[in-house]
Amino acid sequence: MILRAFRHVVAVSAVLIALTGPAHAAPKPGAHALDDVRILSADNMEGRGVGTPGGAKARAYIVKRFGEIGLRPQGQAFERPFTFKPRFGREVAGVNLVARIEGTSSSDKVLVVSAHYDHLGVRKGQVYNGADDNASGIAGLLAVAEAFRARPPRHTVLIVAFDAEESGLRGAKAFVADPPVPLASMGLNVNFDMISKNAKGELYVSGAGPQPYLKPVLEGVAKAAPVKLRLGHDTDAQGKENNWTAQSDQGAFAEKGVPWVYFGVEDHPEYHQPTDDFATVPQDFFKRSVATVVTATRALDDDLDGISRAAGR
């Protein structure tokens, strides 16, 4: 356990150096995270509503970043279109983005790392920019992709940007209904949704409550994390509203029996408000949050075979 904690300290320190190091240093994982949030939450993205020009513009930006990182698509193209019909209204077209990074081991287990890029769009003339929800999660996703491109993962990793999360996890549900790899091969879903903003400097990681085999890895990461990484929000002990299991895209994986981990902050005054702008993001906390999720995802990749065995997969 001491050795594991030391590894996590070294890993977190390396990511922090990458995020805060000298300007002349080569770009490192997470170096573009602030720019990713700023660009995705700009007014010209029009709130990134599903099926809107703003959503398409955000998607084009993410595809561009995939190319800059050197990612390859899972299949013929990054785009995986889907449709859904809301309770009221016409059928809506959404598009998930899926990239693949090959692992170095012979394991057949796949790690799915995800975040949603859509938000609420424009309502009554006001743009809901969604800097924290969820431009921040996409920035974390891209930082993880950069880290795994710089040093390949042990297991094959799918980097997935979901659409239509705000419409009821529609993109994630479409993904697990028609998966690009067999569901049985998915050892774990790691999902990021709102990782940039908390007055107490706290980031939560959910999943260890209902899946106790995850606890040793997550506690090891928490001991060395540069933010206050707290485990919780994954049972009904404090009321169903405090159980986040189904409150973001990891819920679609949980329904299919795929193990999951979710990183996010508690609700804040800007949540689902037009004030969720880049200017309200505490940059130091966000950088440390990105460093934390990068290190945590690496640790989960390292232990994925053990996690899969413990989960009976």
Automatic annotation (TrEMBL):
Instruction: Say which domain of life the source belongs to.
Output: Bacteria
Q: Where is the signal peptide?
A: 1-25
* Stored Gene3D superfamilies: Zn peptidases
Query: Domain Peptidase M28, which positions?
Result: 96-294
**Pfam family of the protein (one):** Peptidase_M28
Which keywords does this chain's UniProt record carry? Signal
Family annotation (InterPro entries): M28_fam, Peptidase_M28
The keyword Signal belongs to this UniProt entry's keyword annotation: yes
User: Which protein is depicted?
Assistant: Zn-dependent M28 family amino/carboxypeptidase
Organism the protein comes from: Caulobacter rhizosphaerae
